[in-house]
């Protein structure tokens, strides 16, 4: 692949741009703020998001979207889910014809209940085969430290997925392809909500049995939603499902898990938000949109609904625990 533009120099946008540059791909990283672009150009560091990482010399940073997008074969979108529509609308007229549009974001849009690939298709007015998704157990800080990781590149057009796979394969980053875009996106969005629940459990002082139970039942409700929306059930046993759930629910690096832990310890939503220092915990918003998507499709997602009630209706996490355990007894397969 000749040239890739990464739009968004937050934690994951910066780490993914490093992955591409380390794979030998000509990569330009677009930052919103000139301080960030200047620090990357002058000192090879992103002080706000990855202060301890030396970025590769072949990674170019700019605040000029036109310059970043000119001649790009792939445009990687690394902004938070709820801002993707507005950001992309601003770049629409600059997108190179036939570039693959790649989402890094893990969320479902509030209001429209659309997945990120659907938002991209709508805003950029492109067919589904031009849109790809990168998802999996990909904590940005670990990848920036070059710790070995696998990921999934999902695209309806297998050839485009392979092209992107080549562009980002390196000694520490191993991407697999998948044609199940729906399943891969739902896995990435839903696991953030389940990680909030695991964080709450940790904040309440619960141990590994509780975590494993939430992860497994969280996967069950994610797979139920996937089945209703046409996903391949096997996707949820893969990197975009189980893989990402395990990484996010277990890691202190996860913003969603950390956010949930604060709520579990009794902090309010506002206190937890303040402590996040502007870093995005996508599940806080997506618990609403995913819950609505589930309701619209007649799918029961009790953990997701409970997380929504804690985040947005002030439910005490201890009351949520009792409510989940007190639900009507049923078969594991229901
Ligand atoms: N950080 C991680 O480990 C991973 C994050 N992701 C996903 O990638 C997406 C981006 O996450 P991060 O890079 O971690 O977020 P972040 O909070 O570290 O960075 C967000 C970036 O988007 C830019 N941005 C543009 N418009 C914005 C607006 N209106 N409001 C806020 N920020 C705006 C910010 O300037 C910043 O560069 C999220 O959907 C997240 O779930 C996925 C895998 C790993
Ligand atoms: O998506 C991630 C890991 O795959 C990052 O999780 P957080 O957004 O919770 O930090």
From TrEMBL:
SUPFAM superfamilies: 6-phosphogluconate dehydrogenase C-terminal domain-like (SSF48179), NAD(P)-binding Rossmann-fold domains (SSF51735). Signal peptide: none annotated. GO terms for molecular function: glycerol-3-phosphate dehydrogenase [NAD(P)+] activity; NAD binding. Pathway: Membrane lipid metabolism; glycerophospholipid metabolism. Coiled coil: none annotated. Residues 180-319 form the Glycerol-3-phosphate dehydrogenase NAD-dependent C-terminal domain. One of its GO terms (cellular component) is cytosol. One of its GO terms (biological process) is carbohydrate metabolic process. Its EC number is 1.1.1.94. Catalyzes the reduction of the glycolytic intermediate dihydroxyacetone phosphate (DHAP) to sn-glycerol 3-phosphate (G3P), the key precursor for phospholipid synthesis. This is Glycerol-3-phosphate dehydrogenase [NAD(P)+].
């Amino acid at each position: 692949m000749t040239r890739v533009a990464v739009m968004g120099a937050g934690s994951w946008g910066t780490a993914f741009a490093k992955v591409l540059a380390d794979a030998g791909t000509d990569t330009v990283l677009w930052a919103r703020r000139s301080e960030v672009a200047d620090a990357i150009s002058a000192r090879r560091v992103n002080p706000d998001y990855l202060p301890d990482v030396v970025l590769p010399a072949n990674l170019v940073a700019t605040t000029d979207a036109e310059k970043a997008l000119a001649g790009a074969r792939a445009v990687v979108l690394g902004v938070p889910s709820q801002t993707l529509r507005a950001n992309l609308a601003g770049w629409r007229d600059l997108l190179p014809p036939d570039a693959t549009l790649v989402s890094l974001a893990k969320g479902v849009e509030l209001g429209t209940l659309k997945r990120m690939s659907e938002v991209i298709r709508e805003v950029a007015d492109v067919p589904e085969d031009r849109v790809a998704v990168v998802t999996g157990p990909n904590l940005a800080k670990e990848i920036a430290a070059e710790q070995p990781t696998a990921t999934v590149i999902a695209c309806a057009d297998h050839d485009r997925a392979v092209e992107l796979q080549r562009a980002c394969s390196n000694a520490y980053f191993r991407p697999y392809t998948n044609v199940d875009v729906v399943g891969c996106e739902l896995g990435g969005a839903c696991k953030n909500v389940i990680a909030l629940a695991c964080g709450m459990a940790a904040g309440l002082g619960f141990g590994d049995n509780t975590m494993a139970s939430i992860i497994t039942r969280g996967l069950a409700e994610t797979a139920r939603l996937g089945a209703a929306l046409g996903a391949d059930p096997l996707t949820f046993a893969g990197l975009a499902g189980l893989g990402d759930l395990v990484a996010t629910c277990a890691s202190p690096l996860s913003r969603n898990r950390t956010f949930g832990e604060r709520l579990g310890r009794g902090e309010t939503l506002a206190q937890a938000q303040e402590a996040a220092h502007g870093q995005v915990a996508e599940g806080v918003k997506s618990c609403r949109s995913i819950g609505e998507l589930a309701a619209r499709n007649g799918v029961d997602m009790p953990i997701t609904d409970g997380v929504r009630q804690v985040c947005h209706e002030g439910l005490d996490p201890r009351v949520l625990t009792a409510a989940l355990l007190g639900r009507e007894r049923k078969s594991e397969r229901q």
